């Protein structure tokens, strides 16, 4: 497995296949499973293999701990820099049963709408066979069947160490606060260089690192993100276009979710960003997802990916201003073959969702 990507798209796979993949990953644990998850709500059929894997490992003496977002916000979701999600995660986790520890994680300052937005699992993180599951994918029916998402599995005890630090901070504090501060590093996995960082502690560093990689792209630049609202990232993309140097920008975003952002920006100090994004939009395909309602069809273009030359940037981190202060994780991976896989996937989505 070492470094394995899985790509999801609307109606592109059976959700049962994703459930089986997740259950298999969980079943491989021998000592510990630590999950940090924003949205965990599955129908009975999809839940069965996942829940059984968790329960079976707990019965076998594996430490199973789940840190989850404490509650969905009443403010518009584009203000949180995250994906819309209805309530239900706490109730779903509560019925998992004995032997499975769970802790709600709050957003820190109650006056600010910040989220525990991770979607990662650490399997046997203190052992030589440790592995991380991360990416953009929540554990819900719609995430596995109607949304565009990616999952990345990495076998690396060194990488696990960084994720364990973040998880223990969340678990001990019970809020996101300054989690992730100084939890940054660079590792090598089978010769592949991987940089890792966590927000909110390193949120501004992440924001500028993504912008830096965009500015340095010389052979290809592809963006695949539900939202693009970070001033630094918008500025880097605009500078890339205006410079006339390097590759043409292309990719895909969620047109419906960005429209909600425009409505928020109008007649505010952030209104300048609208013109900046509109200059980029002709180079990007926009998925017309269903406007969010709690009980509606959740079919967002939900990836958070940049491919700059042979570097893949992925994780839970939307390319948004608000994501700086959410609990997020991000990987910057320098690998030609992986970049080719992600680029092919993004090209496919861009073709699928380009304007008629």
Describe the structure.
The chain is α/β, with parallel strands linked by helices and 356 residues long. The protein has one domain (3-353): Endonuclease, Chain A (2-Layer Sandwich), CATH 3.30.870.10. Helices cover 34% and strands 26% of the residues. The protein has ten helices and 17 strands. It has helices at residues 15-27, 44-59, 89-94, 141-145, 157-173, 203-216, 231-243, 255-265, 272-280, 336-353, and strands spanning 3-8, 32-37, 40-41, 63-69, 100-105, 119-123, 131-135, 139-140, 149-155, 185-189, 192-199, 221-225, 249-254, 284-287, 304-308, 311-315, 328-334. An eight-stranded mixed β-sheet has the order 10-11-17-16-15-12-13-14, with helices on both faces. Strands 1-9-7-6-2-4-5 form a seven-stranded mixed β-sheet, sandwiched between helices. A hairpin with a 2-residue loop joins strand 15 and strand 16. Helix 1 (15-27) runs parallel beside helix 2 (44-59), helix 6 (203-216) runs parallel beside helix 7 (231-243) and helix 7 (231-243) packs across helix 9. The chain is globular, with a radius of gyration of 19 Å. The N and C termini lie far apart (39 Å).
Write the layout of secondary structure elements.
Blueprint: E1 3-8, H1 15-27, E2 32-37, E3 40-41, H2 44-59, E4 63-69, H3 89-94, E5 100-105, E6 119-123, E7 131-135, E8 139-140, H4 141-145, E9 149-155, H5 157-173, E10 185-189, E11 192-199, H6 203-216, E12 221-225, H7 231-243, E13 249-254, H8 255-265, H9 272-280, E14 284-287, E15 304-308, E16 311-315, E17 328-334, H10 336-353
Parallel strand pairs: 2-4, 3-8, 4-5, 12-13, 13-14
Antiparallel strand pairs: 1-9, 2-6, 6-7, 7-9, 10-11, 11-17, 12-15, 15-16, 16-17
């Amino acid at each position: 497995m070492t470094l394995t990507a899985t790509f999801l798209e609307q109606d592109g796979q059976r959700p049962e296949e994703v459930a089986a993949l997740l259950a298999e990953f969980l079943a491989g644990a021998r000592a510990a499973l630590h999950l940090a998850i924003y949205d965990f709500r599955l129908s009975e059929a999809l839940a069965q293999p996942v829940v059984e894997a968790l329960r079976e490992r707990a019965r076998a003496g594996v430490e199973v701990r789940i840190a989850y977002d404490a509650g969905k916000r009443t403010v518009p979701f584009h203000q949180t820099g995250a994906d819309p999600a209805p309530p239900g995660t706490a109730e779903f986790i509560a019925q998992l049963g004995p032997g499975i520890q769970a802790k709600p994680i709050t957003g820190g300052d109650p006056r600010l709408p910040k989220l525990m937005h991770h979607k990662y699992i650490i399997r046997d993180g203190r052992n030589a066979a440790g592995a991380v599951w991360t990416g953009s994918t929540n554990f819900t029916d719609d995430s596995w069947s109607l949304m565009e998402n990616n999952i990345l599995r990495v076998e690396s005890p060194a990488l696990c160490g960084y994720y364990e630090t973040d998880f223990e901070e969340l678990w001990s504090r019970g809020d996101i606060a300054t989690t992730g501060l100084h939890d940054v590093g660079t590792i090598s996995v089978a010769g592949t260089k991987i940089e890792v960082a966590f927000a909110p502690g390193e949120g501004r560093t992440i924001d500028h690192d993504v912008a830096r990689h965009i500015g340095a792209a010389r052979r290809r630049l592809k963006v695949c993100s539900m939202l693009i609202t970070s001033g630094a990232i918008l500025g880097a993309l605009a500078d890339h276009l205006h410079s006339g140097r390097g590759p043409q920008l292309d990719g895909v975003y969620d047109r419906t979710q960005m429209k909600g952002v425009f409505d928020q920006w109008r007649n505010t100090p952030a209104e300048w960003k609208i013109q900046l994004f509109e200059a980029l939009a002709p180079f990007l395909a926009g998925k017309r997802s269903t406007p969010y309602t709690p009980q509606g069809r959740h079919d967002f273009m939900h990836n958070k990916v940049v491919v700059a030359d042979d570097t893949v940037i992925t994780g839970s981190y939307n390319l948004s201003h608000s994501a700086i202060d959410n609990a997020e994780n991000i990987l910057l991976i320098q690998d030609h073959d992986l970049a080719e896989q992600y680029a092919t996937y993004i090209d496919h989505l861009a073709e699928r969702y380009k304007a008629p």
